[in-house]
């Protein structure tokens, strides 16, 4: 069997399985991004835990009944507690923006659909319509960068380093970031926009409900998206 | 055209799945569950370890030969030796051979790690080079920058380096702990040791997570290593409290002070006077509660000290 036949057969199979692997890939990419962002955020969470722990210890130690609570989170537990918070935060973000991507249904007119949804979000904005796609975009970008970084490291070290390996690994990383954004990240944004649009159509009846809809999830997603910006060092691949 | 695109998309999907599988707690959860289902072994780390890039989880070795506070390079050698003591002989031999060493004696290891540290610009880079090889360390330092923390260096390396990164993290933790000085003058007696004890107020056996050192009010308390003040606060249990982060997962805690001389966020040098001891908070008399925290939890600070202070039945202690 010729190489061309094998390639053609594999391409045909991939095309048939597209409905299966594409949603899983979108979910995985956003999960990677959410973790990269949560890792960045965990340092800030540790500072907050320190400040909160000191304030709560000061308060609880005033009353005999609550004094035992002072020992609940001691200096030794603070790092574990901060990381546990980061983990919960990440899993919440996964539940809000990664898991729904498993329901992604590809359509031929994806670009047209994206434009229409953007236009609608611009004309009839809700918190959900604005925050959800932006957070998904940033976190998917962070996921693309993390994945490309892994690829670069693996290729570079598999070839035992050197100038050629460095050049090849860097080139592959740049290609991977671009391809992941062009192929997967933007589809994740389309799906996030679509879901936000459907929910907003159903539940945003007034300007108040438009503002309130998605506000709790925005509290989870926006700080993570800001951390995600730091976890997406695009220029590092070009240095 | 569409089929070729599908093939490319499949490759990208594989890439994204590979990253999620090895580098996210969600992936670790799936790995653990699938290992249970299929009865196989998994290399997934504990979920919280994914926030330190696998660099933490160091346990203080059960038997540590007491030694005086060591210079940083010698302490790293001792840390590397302690970390390697728990390896299987074949794995230990492989690491020694790569570094052209015959034994895992601390002196030889400290020379090699010091040399690698100077080559890679930091002790983190040096220790990483010792366990992962020079090329991996060079690549990680180039990507993360000179002076980067081990966590940042580790994030640049592929999953196959997981075990070596963990050893490097353990070495840095133990190396930092071995180099700690003592916060009070050597004549200070231990009035309550580390370990389980009957709690005088709450009752029941509880862990006393540090040692109580009987010193008069106003005694100068010195930082045991360079670090950043993470907490400088007051409450009626710990009194005036200080927590200093020395990096590599090592923190020290100083309770019941009379006066704090540093603030949260301050950088402190080894030996710097950070507070004056006192009798504040829940305490029976003047003393310092000194605690050493490693990533695995609090450990007895005396395990990292050669000169064992005398113990005294009387004197200030925590309540």
Written description of the protein model:
The complex is a heterodimer of chains A (239) and B (319). In chain A, helix 3 packs across helix 8 and helix 5 runs parallel beside helix 8. Chain A is mainly alpha-helical. Chain B is α+β, with helices and mostly antiparallel strands and 319 residues long. Chain B folds into 3 domains: 44 residues, no CATH class; 127 residues; 116 residues, Glucose Permease (Domain IIA), CATH 2.70.70. Helices cover 37% and strands 19% of the residues of chain B. The interface between A and B is large, with 67 and 64 residues.
User: Cα distance, first to last residue of chain A?
Assistant: 43 Å
The whole-number mean of residue pLDDT values of chain B reads 88
Low-confidence stretches of chain B: none
In DSSP terms (H or I, runs of 4 or more residues), the helix count of chain A works out at 8
Could you say which structural class the secondary elements and strand pairing of chain B correspond to? alpha+beta
Structural class of chain A: mainly alpha
Beta strand % of chain A: under 5%
Secondary-structure element sequence of chain A? HHHHHHHH
What characterizes the major β-sheet of chain B?
10 strands, antiparallel
Instruction: Provide the domain count of chain B.
Output: 3
Helix content of chain B: 25-40%
Please give the structural blueprint.
The complex is a heterodimer of chains A (239) and B (319).
Chain A: H1 3-16, H2 18-60, H3 78-98, H4 110-123, H5 127-158, H6 163-203, H7 207-212, H8 215-230
Helix pairs in contact in A: 2-3, 2-5, 2-6, 2-8, 3-8, 4-6, 5-6, 5-8
Chain B: H1 2-23, H2 25-38, H3 72-84, H4 89-98, H5 106-120, H6 123-132, H7 134-144, H8 150-154, H9 162-178, E1 189-192, E2 195-198, E3 205-208, E4 211-214, E5 220-222, E6 227-235, E7 239-245, E8 251-260, E9 267-268, E10 273-277, E11 288-294, E12 297-299
Antiparallel strand pairs in B: 1-4, 2-3, 4-11, 5-10, 6-7, 6-9, 7-8, 8-10, 8-11, 11-12
Helix pairs in contact in B: 1-2, 3-5, 3-9, 5-6, 6-7, 6-9
